[in-house]
Structure formats: C-alpha cells, structure tokens
UniProtKB/TrEMBL annotation:
<keyword id="KW-0274">FAD</keyword>
<dbReference type="InterPro" id="IPR006091">
    <property type="entry name" value="Acyl-CoA_Oxase/DH_mid-dom"/>
</dbReference>
<keyword id="KW-0560">Oxidoreductase</keyword>
<feature type="domain" description="Acyl-CoA dehydrogenase/oxidase C-terminal">
    <location>
        <begin position="231"/>
        <end position="377"/>
    </location>
</feature>
<keyword id="KW-0285">Flavoprotein</keyword>
<dbReference type="Pfam" id="PF02770">
    <property type="entry name" value="Acyl-CoA_dh_M"/>
</dbReference>
<dbReference type="GO" id="GO:0050660">
    <property type="term" value="F:flavin adenine dinucleotide binding"/>
</dbReference>
<feature type="domain" description="Acyl-CoA oxidase/dehydrogenase middle">
    <location>
        <begin position="122"/>
        <end position="217"/>
    </location>
</feature>
<dbReference type="InterPro" id="IPR046373">
    <property type="entry name" value="Acyl-CoA_Oxase/DH_mid-dom_sf"/>
</dbReference>
<dbReference type="InterPro" id="IPR036250">
    <property type="entry name" value="AcylCo_DH-like_C"/>
</dbReference>
<dbReference type="InterPro" id="IPR013786">
    <property type="entry name" value="AcylCoA_DH/ox_N"/>
</dbReference>
<dbReference type="InterPro" id="IPR009075">
    <property type="entry name" value="AcylCo_DH/oxidase_C"/>
</dbReference>
<dbReference type="GO" id="GO:0003995">
    <property type="term" value="F:acyl-CoA dehydrogenase activity"/>
</dbReference>
<dbReference type="InterPro" id="IPR009100">
    <property type="entry name" value="AcylCoA_DH/oxidase_NM_dom_sf"/>
</dbReference>
<dbReference type="InterPro" id="IPR037069">
    <property type="entry name" value="AcylCoA_DH/ox_N_sf"/>
</dbReference>
<dbReference type="Pfam" id="PF00441">
    <property type="entry name" value="Acyl-CoA_dh_1"/>
</dbReference>
<dbReference type="Pfam" id="PF02771">
    <property type="entry name" value="Acyl-CoA_dh_N"/>
</dbReference>
C-alpha cells in the first residue's frame, strides 16, 4: 500500500491550488454576497481542463483519474465552494453520465463541448415532491411520433440558468415504476422549457440554483440516454460518482476553514499568549486535523475504488456521509476559534460554515447515505 501521491497528482493539486488562490479568492466574498455566478472563473476552469477532468481526451477531456479529481476538488472548494459545485456537477454527473452511457452521436454533440468547458451542464432529478424519494418522479415524457413530449417541474437544479445542456430524468411509463423512467438530453432554449427564478440560498450563493418548467417540450428520440427504462439506474449510477465529488467538496470546505483557524490561532493573543497555546484551542485544532485526515482517506479510497474499476457505491456513500458531517463540525469550530471575527464576512469562515451545510443535503442527504450504507452492510 502506497499513500504517496505521484508527481502528476502533486502537479494537479498545486495547479488547482494556484488557480484557487489567484483566480477564485479575489472577489469570493462579493460573489457570495451578491449571488453572482463566477462566469469568468468557470470559463478559465474550462480552459485549464477542470471541467472535464476524467473524460477521455478524444472527447475533449483531460483524461485524468478520480484521485486527481478529488485533489483538485479539495483545493478549489477550500476557497470557493460555489465554483466547485459547478465543477462537480459538470464532471461527475453530466460528463461522466454522457461518457459512460451516451451514444457516440450524443458524445460528439454534447460531451465534447461540456468536457472542454465551452458550455456547462445540469443534472435534473429532484422535483417538488421527489427529492430523497427519487423513484416518485412526476415529470413525464411520453412518446409521440419521432420525439418525446416532456412535461413537469424540476427543483433545486444546480447550474439551472447557466447550463446549456440538461440531463432530465422523467417517467415514460407510469405503470412500470422505476423501470419506466428514462434520462433525456434537453437543450436550453427548446420551446416550452422555462427557467424559474433563482433560489436565494444560505450557502454556495455564487452558484445558481433554479426550478425548471417543461410544458410540451419536444425532445428528439435520439436524445434518450441508454436503453428504454434505464433512466433510474442511470441516475443512481451517476449519483454514486457524484457523491465522491461532493465528499471532496466537503473535505475542501473543512480544510479551508481549518487552515484559516490554524493561522488565526497563531496570530491572535489572549491572556498573554497566542490562543493556539491554550489547550482549549489546541485540542480543537487536533480534533479538526484528525477529522479532516479521516475524511481525506475516505475520499481517496472511494476515488481509488473508481480508478480500479471496483464498485464505489459504498465507499462513495461513506466518504460523502463522513465528509459532510465533518465539514459542518469543523467549520463551526473554525468560527468559534475566530471568536467575533469569525462572525463577520472578511474572515471567510462564516461563508465556509454556511457552504458546508449543503453538503449534508445535496446528492443525497446524510440520511440517504445511511440508507445506502446500511443496505450494503446488511446485505454482506
Ligand atoms: N447502481 C445501480 N442500480 C441501482 C443503484 C446503483 N447505485 N441504486 C439503486 N439501483 C437500482 C436497484 O438495483 C433497483 O433496481 P432493480 O429493481 O432492478 O433491482 C432500483 O435502482 C431501485 O432501487 P431501490 O429499490 O434501492 O430504490 P429506493 O426507492 O429504495 O431508493 C435511494 C434508493 C438510495 C434512497 C435513492 O432513491 C436515492 O439515492 N435517493 C436520493 C436521490 C438524490 O441523491 N438526489 C440528489 C439530487 S441530484 C443533486 O443534488 C445534484 C445537484 O444539483 C448538486
């Protein structure tokens, strides 16, 4: 067993770290406050290959492994989790789903510009009444002549307005339950496809989250992904990889907050010495460092499983569960270490604490991860 990173991995991690420091840090507070999408920054991420990291270069991607993806996600999330959720959705949900299950025509038409970062994509599963209970899709897509007619509403869609390509999950045969669900590629601007107002969120405020409305939207038959009835499995398999991305996001949010708290604790003096020299603070830092390291190992294990071609449903769910819970705990402690300064925006930790919360909710709540994990351990 070798815990060392390769030279290539170190290079990718450092490139992501430099990008985050130089391009994402300036303006991150203002983007959060004004809910401003990081348009220029996402464009640069595309140019640097961060939006199609694991996609084969023949489809415009960087051809890297999942370990590289975790490393880059951690570095970018340390500074700007709004930018990293765009990256995570584009890489794990949209590009991976299309590369793994799309037809050659779909790959040429959609995957290539998505992997190059020329456009970004969105993954549309959640509905007003189908969040955790993903089989209860109310959106329908019934066959009619040479197309499907899509009707319904999707909720909480990341990249909702800034995406150009949407992977939409819909019920095509109600009697068949989850076996009557399909996934479709829907282009922005298709008649009948409307984007709802932007959600005003607690965290990841720079990313855009919208509801989407579909009214008699004509989707060409060739835009269905995979065999008829494959949509629910498509969503589950895609989300399994997505959870590695969000676990790494949570890891990055926590390590960003920890690094700030560590630095602050060595500068700030109270009762005649740096606060890091008080055991109350030193023990907090010890706990935070240990939790972060544990989460990093879980993320790396899940990524390694993926790179080895092993099943990563369990390791991905464990990584997401632990990293998300840990990120919430660690960011709260980072604010506490900063005292009153932690409660104001200039010190960044209050934003990281707000951003951490969503990692316990999206791509399956912590409770959903426990369903996946408990089913797996009880089956074994
Ligand atoms: N791989 C392949 N197939 C899978 C699978 C997987 N990982 N997980 C389930 N399936 C299959 C099952 O084998 C089953 O198929 P068969 O009947 O042929 O055996 C079928 O899918 C149904 O599975 P379940 O009976 O387990 O389904 P369930 O209703 O009990 O739900 C669940 C399982 C894990 C709770 C699932 O509903 C789930 O993951 N819910 C959470 C949804 C979610 O994560 N939403 C996030 C939205 S996306 C998002 O947040 C993106 C963003 O914008 C950032």
């Amino acid at each position: 067993m070798d815990f060392n990173l390769s030279e290539e991995h170190i290079m990718i991690r450092d490139a992501a770290r430099d990008f985050a420091q130089n391009e994402l840090l300036p303006g991150v507070i203002e983007r959060d406050e004004n809910q401003k999408f990081p348009t220029e920054q996402v464009k640069k991420m595309g140019e640097l290959g961060f939006l199609g990291m694991m996609v084969d270069p023949k489809y415009g991607g960087s051809g890297l492994d999942a370990v590289s993806y975790v490393l880059a996600m951690e570095e970018i999330s340390k500074i700007d989790a709004s930018a990293s959720v765009v990256m995570s959705v584009n890489n794990s949900l949209v590009c991976w789903g299309l590369e793994t299950f799309g037809s050659e025509e779909q790959k040429q038409k959609y995957l290539v510009p998505l992997a190059k970062g020329e456009i970004i994509g969105a993954f549309c599963l959640s509905e007003p009444e189908a969040g955790s209970d993903a089989t209860s899709q109310k959106t329908t897509a019934f066959e009619k002549d040479d197309h499907y007619l899509l009707n319904g509403t999707k909720n909480w869609i990341t990249n909702g307005n800034n995406a150009s390509v949407y992977l939409v999950i819909a019920q095509t045969d109600i009697d068949k339950g989850h076996k009557g669900i399909n996934a479709f590629i829907v282009e922005k601007g298709t008649p009948g496809f409307e984007i709802g107002p932007k959600e005003n969120k607690l965290g990841i405020r720079g990313s855009d989250t919208h509801s989407l409305m579909f009214t008699d939207v004509k989707v060409p038959k060739e835009n269905r992904i995979g065999e008829d009835g494959f949509g629910f499995k498509f969503a589950m398999k895609t989300l399994a990889g997505g959870r590695i991305g969000i676990a790494s996001q949570a890891l990055g949010i926590a390590s960003g907050a920890y690094e700030l708290a560590l630095k602050y604790s060595k500068e700030r003096k109270a009762f005649g010495k740096e606060i890091s020299k008080h055991q109350a603070i030193a023990f907090k830092l010890a706990d935070m460092a240990t939790q972060i390291e544990a989460a990093r190992h879980l993320c790396m294990k899940a990524a390694w499983d993926k790179d080895q071609g092993k099943n990563y449903d369990l390791s991905g769910a464990m990584a997401k569960l632990y990293a998300a819970e840990m990120a919430m705990d660690v960011t709260v402690e980072a604010v506490q270490i900063h005292g009153g300064y932690g409660f104001v925006k200039e010190y960044h930790v209050e934003r990281l604490m707000r951003d951490a919360k969503i990692t316990q909710i999206y791509e399956g709540t912590s409770e959903i991860q426990k369903i996946v994990i408990s089913r797996s351990v009880l089956r074994d």
